[in-house]
Amino acid sequence: MLKILITGATGNVGKEVIVALSKLNHTFEIYAGVYDLENDIPKLQNYNLKWLLFDFTNATTYKTAIDKCDILFLLRPPQLSEVNKYFKPIIDLAIKGDVKHIVFLSVQGVEKSRIIPHHKIEKLIVESKIPYTFLRPAYFMQNFTSTLHSDLIKYNRIFLPAGNAKFTLVDVSDIGEVAAKILTETEKHKNKIYELTCNEKLTFYDMAERLSVSINAKIHYESPNLIKFYFTKRKEKMPIMLILVMIMLHYLPQFQKTPPITNCINQLLKKHPKTFDEFINENLKKLRQ
């Protein structure tokens, strides 16, 4: 029986991949890679899977997990940017082992930006000669229930240095379904790349307006300069590396062409991707508290 390893199994995307896999009729053995067995296992106990200790910040956990893996779902935790330190050893072990396919969660537009870590990770995977599938999703709608949630709840605001830039969006549940489909039929998706978006482009002004209407609270969008954004987030104890990632993710798009809307989700799942309004309606409770 072939084994699939899901890294970041309790995170936004990893959890959705596991949920989607649980709904498919397949013969694979699913392993959840978690960094804290005691606290993470209860989060996944309702699913038919096994657990492995896999901590991106602890290289001693890599080999046992990779050795048990035929197909690897790999993602990058947002706070980790040192590709040679954290990801090259994983890819090297995959080469030495018997990994038959890597599905990597990248980001839309990665081919145009060599400074973001995903670009270097994709390059390592291509050079490894291991068959791959790259998923390049748009801006996660679920950022509003995670990274951006505190500002939303405490201050009724979106506080990002994004100006009037338009963003393509995607719901992580759609990413999870796409990833699950590909993980269970890798031969059909060998060395392919899919950009995953919904069917609309929105500014953060647009998103603030839609959130305001749906959650019945006035949400205002503030686009600070980089100095104000940096020191505000440092005061909130946000790690420096995560602040820099936030700047790259939100500030740079002002000077770039808006990424295209794609029909990859429609083609792969035979259904329309979730809209931003649907995301809001499904997450009203979280967005209000």
Brief rundown of the structure:
40% of the residues lie in helices and 17% in strands. The chain has helices at residues 12-22, 37-40, 62-67, 83-86, 88-96, 117-128, 149-155, 172-183, 204-215, 226-235, 240-250, 264-269, 276-282, 284-288; strands spanning 3-6, 29-34, 50-53, 71-74, 101-105, 132-137, 139-140, 157-159, 167-170, 192-196, 201-202, 220-222. α6 links the parallel β5 (101-105) and β6 (132-137).
Note the topology:
Layout: E1 3-6, H1 12-22, E2 29-34, H2 37-40, E3 50-53, H3 62-67, E4 71-74, H4 83-86, H5 88-96, E5 101-105, H6 117-128, E6 132-137, E7 139-140, H7 149-155, E8 157-159, E9 167-170, H8 172-183, E10 192-196, E11 201-202, H9 204-215, E12 220-222, H10 226-235, H11 240-250, H12 264-269, H13 276-282, H14 284-288
Parallel strand pairs: 1-2, 1-4, 2-3, 4-5, 5-6, 6-10, 7-9, 8-12
Antiparallel strand pairs: 9-11
Helix pairs in contact: 1-8, 5-6, 9-13, 10-11
Mean pLDDT: 94
Q: Whole-Å distance between the termini?
A: 44 Å
Q: How much helix is in the residues?
A: 40-55%
Biggest sheet, strands in spatial order? 3-2-1-4-5-6-10
User: In terms of per-residue confidence, which ranges show pLDDT below 50 for 5 or more consecutive residues?
Assistant: none
Strand content: 15-25%
User: Quick one: how many beta strands?
Assistant: 12
The CATH architecture of the domain at 3-139 and 170-197 and 260-273 is 3-Layer(aba) Sandwich
Helix-strand category: alpha/beta
Please identify the top-level CATH class of the domain at 3-139 and 170-197 and 260-273.
Alpha Beta
